[in-house]
Design brief:
By secondary structure, the protein is α+β, with helices and mostly antiparallel strands. The protein is built from 12 helices and 14 strands.
Length: 410
């Protein structure tokens, strides 16, 4: 009986070894098959297009520069980039080919070209139902853009870098000196930024942008539960303040109209695409990484108050929440045209909350005493919103109001 059990055990062990070895080979093969900057693009079948035609082998591409833009129809920034990409392909038509690449079905993309105006206007051909390309270029977020020049992978970036300047640069110089996108970069957020011998008292540390780390806010308790480490990695200065202030005060969505920057160089605190052009490069230049260690008996709210003052001191700034007069859109009582139409609409509270998340619009404030539902019709302007609200029993006016804003001074 004992000999039988030994035999069974050895057989099971052998099966486990073979299975593990086989899995290890598969994993190693997967890692080996992924491509990096500097690798040559294999001559693979590129897949099918949304118009049902085949792309063919990579070697069949006639243009020197091929750009693969991994995206999906749920990514608003990906969709917003399509008109620019389409114009660039036409501008560099003899040397550039751009393929938006998606795992989504052909019918999904075909439908988007019907219902979405931005999709419908693009002249780009989408590689659809992709399985192979995403294995060669694994990623966790989109957009994920691969630049292939003369068959060699030259860069992997965000879509913001795909513009006339960068295309002309890579065609002329054969390279791009920009931050590379790596969704699998390993950074241990649990480790402190600064080595400390004594973690029983308050201490803080701040540095700049950290390579191979993503933007992250977090908190970690020490193993002995005697201290707590609050950290913010690769965050814009404004975001660092908003994170801390948001834990101290009950704040609305702090859109640009609720943020006042009284500083000589505003570009250090707020990204402006017109002047800064590339947000990833702006982050490398202006983002901060910060941590503070507290005794565990300090409440979260008190920790954030201390961090706010510490940020002020380290950055030589003054921050506060103040009341200032700001141009707003005000919802007031009105006369309903036919409120029964919107019985299945949203509550006014939910409607205001969602509408106020649009950072391109002034603060939206509800001063109505009514509790009628608002229709789900789309709107894009003050007049369109006013028409919708009037049909729901409300009205809309433009006036200044004294509201709470975040103020940053140097």
């Amino acid at each position: 009986m004992i000999q039988y059990l030994k035999t069974v055990f050895m057989v099971a062990l052998a099966i486990l070894f073979i299975t593990s070895f086989s899995y290890g080979k598969q994993y190693f093969s997967l890692v080996q098959d992924t491509l990096q900057v500097g690798d040559r693009m294999p001559d693979i079948d590129m897949g099918i297009l949304d118009n049902e035609s085949k792309v063919g082998k990579f070697s069949a591409q006639k243009q020197r520069l091929v750009i693969l833009d991994f995206m999906n129809s749920s990514c608003t920034s990906c969709i917003a980039a399509l008109p620019r990409l389409s114009s660039l392909e036409e501008m560099f038509q003899h040397t550039l080919k751009i393929y938006p690449v998606t795992y989504e079905t052909r019918s999904r993309i075909k439908n988007m070209k019907i219902v979405n105006e931005t999709f419908s206007k693009t002249r780009l051909n989408f590689i659809v139902e992709d399985q192979q390309l995403k294995q060669l270029f694994p990623h966790q977020t989109v957009s994920h853009v691969v630049w292939i020049l003369d068959g060699i992978i030259k860069a992997i970036t965000h879509v913001e870098y795909v513009d006339e300047k960068m295309i002309a640069t890579i065609l002329k110089e054969g390279k791009l000196a920009v931050p590379q996108k790596n969704d699998f970069a390993r950074f241990d957020y649990s480790k402190p930024l600064k080595n400390r011998n004594n973690v029983d008292k308050y201490d803080s540390f701040m540095t700049g942008f950290i390579q191979h780390a993503e933007t992250k806010f977090g908190m970690k308790e020490s193993e002995d539960s005697l201290s707590v480490r609050e950290y913010m990695i690769n965050v814009p200065i404004l975001s660092a303040y908003m994170y801390a202030y948001g834990k101290v005060f009950k704040l609305p969505y702090m859109k640009p109209d609720r943020v006042c920057i009284d500083a000589k160089d505003v570009s250090k605190y707020r990204f402006d695409q017109k002047s800064d052009r590339y947000e990833s490069s702006w982050m490398v230049k202006n983002a901060i990484s910060y941590e503070a260690v507290f005794k565990s008996d300090v409440t979260r709210k008190e920790r954030m108050k201390i961090m706010i003052k510490d940020l002020d001191d380290k950055l030589n700034l003054r921050s506060s929440i103040e009341k200032r007069w700001v141009d707003c859109w005000i919802i007031i009582d009105g006369q309903a045209q036919n409120t029964s139409v919107f019985e299945d609409g949203r509550s006014i509270q939910d409607f205001v909350f969602m509408a106020d998340l649009n950072q391109d619009l002034p603060p939206l404030i509800n001063e109505s005493k009514l509790n009628l539902k608002v229709g789900n019709k789309p709107w894009q302007s003050f007049e369109e919103l006013k028409k919708l609200l009037r049909a729901s029993g409300y009205d809309l006016i433009k006036q200044k109001r004294q509201i709470e804003v975040f103020v940053l001074k140097d």
